[in-house]
């Protein structure tokens, strides 16, 4: 939005040209989202406390979590407000990739909001019934998949990039729809499952979003994409602004969510952030790299799948409790140790993902 104003003001002063540079807008996007989060955070926390919108803690989990009961939740509204506001201010809103990303973030945020609302305000322990949650997540994913497939303008937009291999870029055809669906729904639920400890989900999200900013920049730049031998997709460059907005909003939220947390993001935040990472991976054609960089999310989701499957098939549990971060808590690891070690793992995996740009 502001770039349109800057373009008009350039006729009066060429200094406004600075706002046309992607790197400058990326920095401003990060700072804008960060400031919005930090400034509005205390007010939102006080309002949530006043409205008694607090977290309900499972009694069968780690006993150390019982003290968290009543901690304000639904703080993901703050994250979404910061991301959407910053993107609207600094991104080119004629770019359909930006609009699609905002649609996914907002839609998944609404689904998460309904789930949280039922749990913490209407005191319905089940929240949004699982089958309805998956139904609406699926509806959004299918709509987005069909739109992207039907509006694709070059072969690279529907090709699968395989990490570490230069020439392996098979055309997906209709399988693109299937892949997009599973990436969106799978990532949103994986981030949702990871959001069980203070700051555990938001830091890997920040790291992966920051890495995707680099992927979006080099994919959208004709020189870098040629040098790295990856497809050039011009529309992806504006996604840098969305990625940096996620980084800024995430850092601002971490200010209040770090151990011991003053607020939790709730499903409104985790589903939306997972959807954001999923759609970014699809748009920059790095779905397989997302599996690497988001390894912590994958590990959390797999632990739940294995736990449920093992119990139904064998009547035995693999872990003391799933998701896997609770397993380590019940083994005696203090919560901060679990959190920081998972952060370290996430950082390592993100670096490995970035290495695929060159190691091809």
Distance between the termini: 38 Å
Number of helices: 14
Q: State the low-pLDDT regions, or none.
A: none
Radius of gyration: 20 Å
* Major sheet description: none
- Report the principal-axis shape: globular
Strand content: under 5%
Number of beta strands: 0
The helical percent reads 55-70%
H/E series: HHHHHHHHHHHHHH
Structural class: mainly alpha
Would you kindly provide a written description of the structure presented here, covering whatever features stand out?
There is one protein chain. This protein has a domain of 234 residues. By secondary structure, the protein is mainly α. The model has no long low-confidence stretch (mean pLDDT 90). Helix content is 66%, strand content 0%. Pathway: Cell wall biogenesis; peptidoglycan biosynthesis. It holds the Pfam family MraY_sig1. Keywords: Cell cycle, Cell division, Cell membrane, Cell shape, Cell wall biogenesis/degradation, Magnesium, Membrane, Metal-binding, Peptidoglycan synthesis, Transferase, Transmembrane, Transmembrane helix. It comes from Bowmanella denitrificans.
Q: What descriptive keywords fit this protein?
A:
single chain; 360 residues; mainly alpha; 14 helices; globular; EC 2.7.8.13; transmembrane helix; membrane; Glycosyl_transferase_4
Brief account:
The chain has helices at 2-9, 22-50, 76-90, 96-121, 130-151, 175-194, 202-220, 222-228, 239-257, 266-283, 287-293, 295-314, 324-330, 335-355. The protein is mostly helical and 360 residues long. The chain has a domain at 29-52 and 67-160 and 171-286.
């Amino acid at each position: 939005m502001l770039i349109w104003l800057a373009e008009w003001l350039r006729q009066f002063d060429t200094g406004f040209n600075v706002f046309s540079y992607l790197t400058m807008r990326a920095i401003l996007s990060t700072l804008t989202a960060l400031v919005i989060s930090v400034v509005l955070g205390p007010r939102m926390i006080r309002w949530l406390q006043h409205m008694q919108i607090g977290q309900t803690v499972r009694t069968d989990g780690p006993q150390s979590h019982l003290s968290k009961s009543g901690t304000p939740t639904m703080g993901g509204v703050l994250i979404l407000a910061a991301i959407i506001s910053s993107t609207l201010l600094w991104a080119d809103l004629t770019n359909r990739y930006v609009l699609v990303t905002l649609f996914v973030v907002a839609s998944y945020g609404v689904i998460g909001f309904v789930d949280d609302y039922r749990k913490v305000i209407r005191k319905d322990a089940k929240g949004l019934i699982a089958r309805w949650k998956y139904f609406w997540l699926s509806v959004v994913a299918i709509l987005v998949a069909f739109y992207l497939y039907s509006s694709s303008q070059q072969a690279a937009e529907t090709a699968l990039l395989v990490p570490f291999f230069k020439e392996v870029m098979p055309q997906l055809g209709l399988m693109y729809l299937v892949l997009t669906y599973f990436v969106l729904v799978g990532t949103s639920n994986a981030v949702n499952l990871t959001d069980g400890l203070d700051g555990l989900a938001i830091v890997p999200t920040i790291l992966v979003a920051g890495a995707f900013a680099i992927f979006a920049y080099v994919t959208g730049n004709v020189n870098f994409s040629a040098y790295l031998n990856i497809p050039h997709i011009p529309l992806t460059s504006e996604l840098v602004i969305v990625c940096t907005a996620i980084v800024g909003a995430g850092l601002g939220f971490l200010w209040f969510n770090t151990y011991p947390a003053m607020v939790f993001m709730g499903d409104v935040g985790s589903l939306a952030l997972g959807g954001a990472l999923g759609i970014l991976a699809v748009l920059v054609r790095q779905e397989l790299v997302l599996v690497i960089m988001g390894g912590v999310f994958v590990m959390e989701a797999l632990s739940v799948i294995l736990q449920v499957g093992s119990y139904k098939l064998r009547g035995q549990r693999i872990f003391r409790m799933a998701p896997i971060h609770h397993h380590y808590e019940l083994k005696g690891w203090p919560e901060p140790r679990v959190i920081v070690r998972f952060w370290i793992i996430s950082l390592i995996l993100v670096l490995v993902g970035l290495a695929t740009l060159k190691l091809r």
